[in-house]
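Agenda item 2: calcium ion complex prediction
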Amino acid sequence: MDFDKIVTGEKGDQMTDTTVDPAGLLAIAVTVAREAADTARSMRAEGVSGVTTKSTDTDVVTAADRAVERQVVAALGALRPGDTVLGEEYGGTDGDARVRWVVDPIDGTVNYLYGLPQYAVSLAAEVDGVAVAAVVRNAATGDEWTATLGGGAFRGKKRLAASAQTDLAQALVATGFGYDAKRRAHQAEVLTRLITRVRDIRRFGAASLDLCLAAEGGVDAYFEKGLNPWDHAAGGLIAAEAGLVVGGLDGRPAGLDMLVAAPPAIFGPLADLLSEFDAAGGP
Ligand code: IPD
Ligand code: CA
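Presented output:
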C-alpha cells in the first residue's frame, strides 16, 4: 500500500482530500487492527498477565489490553501523524485534526481472561466526528468485519445484510451488562420483562462483536446501556452499513444511555418496549 499517497492527498488530478477518504482510512485501519489482533492472540497464548481492575472488582484490564493499545497508537502515529486517537486504556491524544481514531484494544476482556474465543480489536476512523471507516477483528478466530460510510459492510469479501425479521416476538436479541452491580441489577430487571416479548436473549461478552453479529443476521437485534465510544464506534458503523437502524431511545442518537441496533421493522417496537421498561434509566 502506498501510504504516502494517502497522506499527501494526491489522487490523479482531482482536488479530492484523500487524507479523509474512507477507503484509504479503512486500508490503514485493517493493517493496524490485524497487527494488533496478532499481538493480542500471541500474548494470550503465552498466558494472561498484568491483571488489574478498573471501575469495579470485575472490570479487568490486562497487560495485553495496554500493550495492544500502545501498539495501535504507535502504528497510527507513524502512518497518520497529526490525527488524534481515543482509546479505552489511555484516553485521548491532543490535537484538533479532522480525523480521530477510536480504538478498543481488546473488546471482550473477560472472554480474553477466560480463553473464550470472543474478543476483538475494534478500530474506527471518524472524520469531523462521524465514523467513516471501521474494522472489528476477532483476535481469537481471525474473523474480520469492515465498513465504510456509504460503502456497505463486509465480512471478508462478503457483503452483509441485516436480518429481515419483522416480528419482534420472533427476534433473537443480544445484549450486554455493565460492570457496576447496581447497573447490572437494573439491566437484569429490564431483561426479565423483555425476555417474554422476544424469541430469546444472547449475551456473548463483546459489544463490537455483538454489533457485527447483528450486521450479518447472526442475531436479529442488539441493545445495551452504558457503552463507551470505543465499544461501538466501529461495530455501530458496520451494523448501520448492513442495514440496521442504530440509535437511542425516544428519538435520541445512540449514546452512553442506550444503543439499539435493529432491522428497520423492529427498531421502533424494540425501542418502544425498552423505553417503557426504562432501559436507558437507572444507575
Ligand atoms: C465490554 C464488552 C461487554 C459489554 C460491556 C463492555 P470490555 O467491553 O463489550 O460485552 O457488555 O459493556 O464494557 O470491557 O470487554 O472492553
Ligand atoms: Ca476493552
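Discussion summary: The radius of gyration is 18 Å.
Owner for follow-up: CH.
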